[in-house]
């Protein structure tokens, strides 16, 4: 310990460090063209629903219309795409902006830095996605008298599962952003090939897909047909229970945050705050 | 002084400041990038005060600095702050301030917001973070730009803001990587003044540059790095002593250059070369003191009128050129 230590404050630890790390990387992360692009993506199903409302068309029951939008648009495409940008940018922006040295130069454990960036990315995603889902919920159920109140419990379950899905995707893409240089391309491949194709096959791979478990949780909680894993059922396979899917999503979060902390702890910053590589011998 | 490694670069006694002494020690530090050896068994000890890290582009300065601030780990050897490794050591990081050579800032943030966030990362809480941010911004001369976005800052203002960030936690060790690059003369002068003040306060300051006179303006203690090795280290005068091994050039302005040259050539081994110029002669000598003594005698005898005697190789550029060559 330095004899000059009394001059300076004690570095933050625990949640104080996480909050400080989150604050330092949050401001301005949602800005300009990126924000407009994300808003356009997230708002697309809302625009579609508005058009359907104007034309007086619906999709089955009130909640079924909401579930169909949620399944086909948000769970299968929009949420993964939004999280690709927000998750990989959690650290990617630091590499590109040459600001990584401020982050890793701070006297904070790198695991807490990861947690801070994760928290900031999750917060951004929730702020963008959840209000859009609420609006869509209202638009879908508004024409049906009393439906908004009737399906309120299911609506809250949906929001909770979507929030958990966001937590899982953010952890995965944050890890890819830390680990790979071309993380956006890798993340697209992950979403298209794994989540979109292999994860939907009636095989063990399905149990490793975030969207599969998110839809399974929603099906178990709401019994809405749009979320039913029909392919598994047609093949006579029993989908996992709600607890299994819940635990799996939590494991996704914990595993990829652990891996991210490990990658950052070993990261070598050998360029002007931008280049980074693994430590020698790692 | 010789190019022997691991001699401490100590500041003058008057620069001790009020701080407890700090020792930053590099022991046989090497670092490879693939097959390229960027640093080769560097031994170095730095104490309080300003030390200049000099070397041409590609000498290994930035690599050395990144090892010192813990951004990278040495392949071999140790980087120690008061005996403790720096890499992944939060106690050490809490004592080090770093101004990177890049231009990275959070462009959308005001100077105040950026520094307040950074102060919180360093442990300042609540209003103390904002107050400390403001204090540091005032110190580096950014008081008038405190609420402006850093994206609109000039190069000099960006450098000042980065320096303010590095000073937030009152570091024992301050590492500046090419801090004067791109600054106009006024900004450069102010920056140099701040660095010298920090050295006087007892902060261990390491400043890298490939522009020699910049470093000379900040400090008397220098380390010369070339091809990943410490070529020489010590004070500027120590380095100058190395010139004894090389012929030094002295320009003599006189009304009778040929006669003066002839007089000097009579003395065996005094000159190793000479060059006639307009209004004078440039002498090359391995014995500058004796040469000057002879010039004084010639002037005293009145055989030649000597208007000026200028040593041409006393600047660091010449020293560095000699050592590298």
How would you explain this protein's 3D organization?
The complex is a heterodimer of chains A (282) and B (325). With 282 residues, chain A is an all-alpha fold. Chain A has one domain (30-277). In chain A, 71% of the residues lie in helices and 2% in strands. Chain A contains 11 helices and 2 strands. Chain A has a two-stranded antiparallel sheet. The longest helix of chain A is centred in the first third of the chain and has 36 residues, at 62-97. Chain A is globular and about 65 Å long. The two termini of chain A are 30 Å apart. Residues 272-282 of chain A have low confidence and may be disordered. Helix content of chain B is 34%, strand content 27%. Chain B is built from 11 helices and 14 strands. Chain B has a 6-stranded mixed β-sheet with strand order 6-7-8-3-9-10, with helices on both faces. A 4-stranded antiparallel β-sheet of chain B has the order 2-1-4-5, with helices on one face. The relative contact order of chain B is 0.15. Chain B has helices at residues 61-68, 90-93, 111-121, 126-139, 155-167, 185-200, 212-218, 236-241, 257-265, 288-301, 316-324, and strands at 24-33, 36-46, 49-54, 76-81, 84-85, 96-99, 173-177, 204-209, 221-226, 229-235, 248-254, 271-277, 280-285, 306-311. Chain B starts with 23 loop residues before the first strand and ends with a helix. Chain B is of the alpha/beta class and 325 residues long. The interface between A and B is large, with 44 and 49 residues.
């Amino acid at each position: 310990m330095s004899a000059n230590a009394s001059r300076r404050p004690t570095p933050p630890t625990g949640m104080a460090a996480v909050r400080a790390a989150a604050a330092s990387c949050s401001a301005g992360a949602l800005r300009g063209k990126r924000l407009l692009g994300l808003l356009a993506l997230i708002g697309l199903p809302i625009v579609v629903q508005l058009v359907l409302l104007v034309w007086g068309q619906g999709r089955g029951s009130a909640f079924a219309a909401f579930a169909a939008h949620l399944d086909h648009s948000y769970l299968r495409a929009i949420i993964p795409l939004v999280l690709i940008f927000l998750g990989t940018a959690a650290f990617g922006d630091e590499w590109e902006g040459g600001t990584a040295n401020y982050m890793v130069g701070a006297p904070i454990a790198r695991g807490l830095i990861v947690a801070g960036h994760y928290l900031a990315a999750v917060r951004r995603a929730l702020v963008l996605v959840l209000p859009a889902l609420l609006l869509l919920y209202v638009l879908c159920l508004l024409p049906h008298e009393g439906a908004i109140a009737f399906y309120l419990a299911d609506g809250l379950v949906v929001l909770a599962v979507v929030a958990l899905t966001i937590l899982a995707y953010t952890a995965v893409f944050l890890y890819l952003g830390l680990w790979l240089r071309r993380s956006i391309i890798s993340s697209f491949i992950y979403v298209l090939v794994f989540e979109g194709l292999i994860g939907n096959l009636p095989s063990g791979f399905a149990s490793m897909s975030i969207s599969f478990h998110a839809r399974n949780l929603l099906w178990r909680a709401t019994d809405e047909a749009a979320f039913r894993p029909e392919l598994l059922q047609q093949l006579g396979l029993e989908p996992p229970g709600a607890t299994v899917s819940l635990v799996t999503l939590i494991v996704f979060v914990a595993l990829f945050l652990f891996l991210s902390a490990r990658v950052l702890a070993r990261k070598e910053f050998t360029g002007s705050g931008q280049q980074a590589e693994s430590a020698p011998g790692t | 002084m010789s190019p022997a490694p691991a001699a401490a670069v100590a500041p003058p006694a008057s620069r001790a400041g009020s701080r407890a002494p700090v020792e930053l020690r590099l022991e046989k530090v090497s670092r490879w990038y693939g097959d390229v050896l960027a640093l080769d068994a560097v031994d170095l000890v730095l104490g309080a005060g300003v030390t200049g890290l000099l070397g041409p582009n590609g000498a290994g300065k930035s690599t050395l600095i990144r090892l010192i601030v813990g951004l990278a780990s040495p392949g071999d050897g140790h980087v120690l702050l008061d005996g403790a490794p720096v890499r992944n050591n939060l106690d050490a990081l809490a004592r080090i301030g770093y101004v990177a050579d890049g231009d990275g800032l959070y462009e959308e943030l005001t100077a105040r917001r950026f520094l307040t966030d950074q102060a919180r990362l360093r442990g300042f809480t609540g209003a103390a973070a904002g107050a400390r941010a403001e204090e540091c911004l005032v110190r580096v001369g950014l008081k008038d730009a405190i609420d402006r976005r850093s994206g609109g800052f000039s190069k000099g203002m960006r450098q000042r803001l980065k320096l303010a960030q590095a000073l937030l936690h009152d570091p024992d060790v301050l590492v500046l990587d090419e801090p004067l690059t791109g600054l106009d003369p006024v900004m450069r002068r102010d920056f140099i003044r701040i660095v010298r003040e920090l050295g006087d306060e007892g902060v261990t300051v390491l400043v890298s540059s490939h522009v020699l006179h910049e470093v000379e303006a900040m400090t008397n203690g220098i380390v010369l790095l070339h091809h990943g090795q410490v070529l020489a280290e010590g004070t500027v005068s120590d380095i100058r002593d190395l010139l004894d091994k090389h012929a030094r050039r002295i320009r003599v302005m006189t009304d009778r250059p040929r006669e003066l040259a002839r007089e000097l050539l009579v003395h065996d081994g005094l000159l190793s070369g000479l060059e006639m110029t307009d209004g004078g002669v440039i002498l090359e000598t391995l014995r500058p003191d004796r040469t000057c003594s002879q010039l004084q005698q010639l002037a005293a005898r009145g055989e030649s009128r000597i208007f000026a005697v200028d040593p041409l190789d006393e600047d660091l550029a010449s020293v560095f050129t000699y050592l590298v060559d």
